[in-house]
Amino acid sequence: MDLGGDFCLVCGAEPPLFRDRMCEKCTRDRVTLVKVPKNVPWTRCARCGIVDFKGKWSNVEPEDLWHELIQRNVQFHPEIEDLELGIIPQEVDGRHTLIHLDIEGVIDDLLYNEKHTMRARMSNGVCLTCTRRAGNYFEATVQLRSSARRLSEQEFQTLRKTLDQVMADMPEDPMFFITSEGPVTGGYDVVLGSKALARAWGRSLIASHGGIVTTTTSVVGRKDGLDVTRLTLLYRKPGYNLGDVIRWRGSLWRPASWTGEGVILEKIERRERTGASWRDLENSNVVSRKKDFIKIGAISEDSSAAEFLDPNTWKMVAVRLPFEHEAGRDLLLARIDDEWICLPQLGMDGE
Questions:
Q1: Domain spans of the chain?
Q2: Can you give the pLDDT at residue 351?
Q3: Quick one: how far is CA 345 from the chain centroid?
Q4: Closest CA to 42 of 24, 30, 56, 26
């Protein structure tokens, strides 16, 4: 050995040398890719099954759960490069799962491969949402009602389904839960755990179904020097839907789209478009529902009228064509005051 040359500080071996002037063998004996704890605890809600990670409850798939536990508990060497990680979970029982790790990486141009086993130990807990649900906690009540006519059960269910979509689109929040719900006299009530969720649902209802939202706030107590309030949100759906035929100010109109303050109307007898507020339309009434319209082909037609076979009597009936009718196009018919009226078609009617 050349006494003037480099050598391993541990065993005296000749180059090549690596970390801290040690040979490959001594380096491998002292460098590890990871430090893996023997046991790793995690908590699952015994009621709804969501997982707690450092105080935050969320829905986690099993595969994502194991990766999350590894990321939070396994210490990787700070200089590791080209890391490759293989995970094989092995369930022992309902509370214990063995996580087998196959780890490969490069440190100082040396390739390392290590195998470890970590035990994930599950404990039961109760999340904030389930705790509050069990105590019937709530912050807001949304009342679904109608103006001008009584809504059917199916219509109430259609309105109720919009809440599921709102909850799916909003970020996860432990307060976004339903305490109770059900039909009441004249409508449907939903009791919610969050004022923000109630307001978001109210905006969604107006955007998709029109109507008016009225909110009232009541003080129910004090906590930490601040008032504790509850919100009551009353939503009134108009008695008509987009595409229906309504009678307003002596003429027939079709609601074409909702606005923040009312609705855009299309006149049936001629091309005319106007906006009306909810207050303006209080005295309007529905004369035909969109679901009752029929589409039928004309037997004959000219520039102003068409003949078709009445599906109720199987007799030929003549009807005046609407403005801008395209020759050969199916007729959109509504039965109003015991006679057929051919309607101008809106974009919502399709081809």
A1: 1-30, 35-125, 136-237, 245-349
A2: 54
A3: 32
A4: 56
